[in-house]
Design a protein that fits this description.
alpha/beta; Spore Coat Polysaccharide Biosynthesis Protein SpsA, Chain A; 8 helices; 7 strands; about 40% helix; globular
């Protein structure tokens, strides 16, 4: 049976989490509402992540990977994932598993009517500083994009692949995926999802990444919006 949904898992130095990722995503595949496969994108990890990924993929037919030569950041990993899937739907989840793969089914319930469905982390299990900086950053982003989304940093999304492949990704644009779907005249929706504390490994973002960086990225988005070309092919011959 052809896969309908590919889950991208960006990985950067997550050796302590990957065995749990294998278990949780393998379990999700058995209950997924559509035929699902997993694509690891190793973003130039310098720990044992690549060796663990290769072992996982050799033991699981529904798992595959691509690996960067050097670390290029989350936006690059997501973009590479988008360009390397052939299923009609694509999504992603962080390898820290602070969100629950089972919640993909909640998002998939609405993807027929929308072109992107994103999670909103309810009752977030993060530090006060992380929560506050994310709240401020999301408010700034909404002011610039008018996307109406409360939590674009939530690492749980489902997108129609045709829309995902048209996103011209640049560094930091992973925060603007709903806005980029709107530029394509697509429809977006947000759904509350579960959130958990990080169990292993270290967070890759500090205050700069969560607050100052997104503010700068907003100006890049405005430039992108002004220059963006949107088209649909009506016929082929």
């Amino acid at each position: 049976m052809k896969y309908q949904f590919t889950i991208i898992v960006p990985v950067y130095n997550e050796e302590d989490n990957l065995d749990r990722v294998e278990k949780e995503l393998s379990n999700y595949i058995t209950i997924a509402s559509v035929k699902t496969k997993i694509l690891f994108v190793n973003d130039g990890s310098i720990d044992q992540s690549q060796a663990i990924i290769e072992r996982i993929c050799s033991e699981n037919n529904d798992f595959s990977f691509i690996s960067f030569e050097k670390n290029k950041g989350l936006s690059a990993a997501i973009s590479a994932g988008f360009q390397n899937v052939d299923s009609e739907l694509v999504g992603y989840i962080d390898s820290d598993l602070q969100t629950d793969p089972k919640d993909f089914n909640l998002l998939l319930d609405h993807i027929d009517q929308y072109d992107l469905v994103t999670g909103v982390r309810s009752n977030r299990k993060d530090s006060f500083v992380k929560n506050m900086s994310s709240t401020i950053a999301n408010g700034i982003r909404r002011t610039f994009t008018h996307d109406g989304m409360d939590d674009t940093g939530c690492p749980l999304k489902v997108i129609k692949t045709d829309f995902a492949k048209k996103i011209p990704m640049f560094k930091g644009l992973h925060r603007f995926l709903p806005a980029m779907i709107l530029l394509q005249d697509g429809k977006i929706m947000q759904i509350p999802v579960s959130h958990f504390p990080r169990i292993a490994g270290e967070a890759k973002y500090g205050l700069w990444n969560r607050l100052i960086g997104p503010l700068i990225d907003c100006f890049a988005y405005l430039w992108m919006k002004k220059k963006y070309i949107n088209y649909k092919i009506e016929k082929r011959g």
